[in-house]
């Protein structure tokens, strides 16, 4: 990351205009800059209602210029992180566990799995079922 990108971190929450390598322009509030992913996140207000906005993620390599635009303090509140919902990690982990269990069940009951088990059962007989089924 170049030294120029270090200054971008200080512009978080401010109104900016980005110029892209293809000559395009993106205007909005700098929501965040992730130096590890080299990514800028811009909140674009799409109407006079600050509750309606677009979020754009751009790779820093696609941006040639970042300009801070004048804006008042009230406008900067549009980027307030307090508007983001909290992440419920317990709920996410529970959903992940349910999905993994469902995928395991689907895999066991897949036509291929049933065919393999039927072939093994035919070859090994009930001795296979007593060791595998219980």
Automatic annotation (TrEMBL):
Top-rank taxon, per record: Eukaryota
InterPro entries attached to this UniProt entry: Lsm12-like (IPR039683), LSM12_LSM (IPR048478), LSM_dom_sf (IPR010920)
SUPFAM superfamilies: Sm-like ribonucleoproteins
Organism ancestry: Eukaryota, Rhodophyta, Stylonematophyceae, Stylonematales, Stylonemataceae
Domain LSM12 LSM stretches: 12-65
Species name: Rhodosorus marinus
Pfam families: LSM12_LSM
Protein name stated in the entry: LSM12 LSM domain-containing protein
């Amino acid at each position: 990351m170049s030294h120029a990108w270090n200054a971008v971190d200080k512009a978080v929450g401010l109104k900016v205009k980005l110029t892209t390598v293809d000559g395009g322009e993106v205007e909005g509030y700098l929501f965040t800059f992730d130096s590890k992913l080299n990514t800028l996140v811009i909140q674009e207000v799409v109407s006079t209602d600050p509750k309606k906005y677009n979020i754009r993620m751009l790779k820093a390599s696609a941006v040639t210029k970042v300009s801070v635009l004048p804006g008042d303090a009230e406008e900067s509140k549009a980027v307030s992180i307090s508007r983001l919902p909290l992440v419920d990690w317990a709920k996410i982990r529970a959903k992940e566990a349910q999905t993994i269990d469902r995928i395991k069940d689907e895999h066991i009951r897949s036509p291929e799995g049933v065919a393999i088990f039927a072939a093994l059962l035919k070859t090994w007989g009930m001795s296979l079922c007593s060791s595998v089924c219980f």
